[in-house]
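To whoever picks this up:

The parser on our side crashed when reading a file containing two proteins. I've narrowed it down to the boundary between the first structure block and the second sequence. Both blocks are reproduced below exactly, byte for byte. First block:
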Amino acid sequence: MEASHGHERNADQIAYWNGPGGQRWADRQAVQDIVLKPVLDVLLDRARPRAGEHVLDVGCGSGASTKAFASKVERSGRVLGIDVSEPMLERARQSTPKEAPVDYALADATIYPFDPASFDLLASRFGVMFFAEPAVSFANLRKALKPTGRLAFACWQEPRQNPFFMAPLQAVYKHVPKLPQLGPEDPGPFSFASEARVKRILGEAGFSAIAMEPSALELDIAVGRGIDAAIQGALEIGPASRALDGHPEDVRAAAVASMREALSHYAKGDSVSLPAAIWIVTARA
């Protein structure tokens, strides 16, 4: 997808998710689906998709959430997965059975011309925190919901509550400069960590009955394959990977040693389970 095909202020995100970063996420699709399954399970429980419903899955990535919603709405329903990342959507299309009640759209949800009042449920697993003007994006999305429609999405709580991100990153920071600090309104994984900000954004977009439920999870970044697999995952995607980009091999080797030491405290057998804190956000159209 070209940045010019989306909202102008989302151009940087569109470029990132269509470049090497997006490709790395697509390449790790199978593993990440396992790592993040506990999040998807909680989201499905709170979203309560039902047979026959039409679901809009925003920031669907490589399709795990889209397929999960499709299994709940059955053949009498339909799910549209939308994302800006061509590499991730290509993986989604490859892994989705042809008979599944699923469609995919390579597009920016901020400006996509959805059919008005056509969806029962607007859902997302970590796909809505990257909008540059989120109130504008959510206003467009709300128009796609039926008057009786509802919203349910998962987003991250504060970084300090998420060793899932921070344990590998803090180990890497012993050897490389810190990543540029994002402002509280900047797009990024933690841009919806503030309960007040999320409620303000959704209120401005026209949603009502906004609620945020905290959920504490443990996510096995090794997927049962031992600490080496956990380290490899941190080196391939996520903030630790970005912090190490461009650094020489000796620095990377030292960072890996520090990561091994930090992650060993979370290892139990072949699992490396890190605490993760999310919000499940729900609202009415």
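<<boundary where parser fails>>
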Amino acid sequence: MKKHTFFSMALSSLLAVAVMAGCGTGNQSGAGQQPNQPQPGQEQTTPATGGGKTLTMATSADFKPYEFHDLTSGKDEIVGFDVDIAKYIGKELGYEVQINDMNFDGLVPALQTKRADFVMAGMNPTPDREKNVDFSVVYHEARNTIVIKKDSGITKLDQLAGKKVAVQLGSTQETTAKDAAKTVQGLQVVSLNKIGEIVEEVKTGRVDAAIIEDHVAKGFVENNEGLQLAPIETAESTGTAIAFPKGSEHVAEFNKVIKKMQENGEMDKLIQKWFGQ
């Protein structure tokens, strides 16, 4: 009996040591696992660096040159015009900025449910959006344009009669297309989540055209020889602003830094960097 007891105790001790050796500290991952990688359908987060106060910026990083994924450094980094502005404002005000990437139509709900402190995504301060969120002053002006194939023969909005037109879900371009459909007979609006998907639909002929913000459209057309732009003739420009939850304390302090950037030339430097103008 004593031999069996001794053997059982020794075996139990060895098993305990083996279990402890296999346990990590919480920072280790198993073979083949990548920690902190988003699963399909989940929001992707770019962590803030350094210490201090942190603000969460929500965006839809498929809107080059405003915000997009850059892999040239060997890692997935969200960069762009809006990102540079957010980082400048954060530095001026003493905040670290954490970026959450999600679908465009989820941005306003993210503010309403307090999952983000602000949104920068080439967003326009429309009356409908102003019912649900607060906006900063406008920091950039742009216009909408039609993206079509070069052989389409389309040069203006009223030539889209009987055509399928792709737009981004929840965008002002979607509103523009739906408004046009009221007067342009047979115009069908196809709403999709990502700009890349929209351009691909035009390239493959599944839709006849797309309506996209001009700076963003220009970048796609430059990389696709078979596409061209047809500016939408209108006196209205599309102002871009930062969105906040209703009653946010950050609106006033962000406005001060935006005005400072416009006065000290920093905003012009970033416009030249990202838009070449």
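After patching the parser it read the second block fine. The chain has two domains: 53-142+238-275, 144-230. Confidence is low (pLDDT under 50) at residues 1-42.
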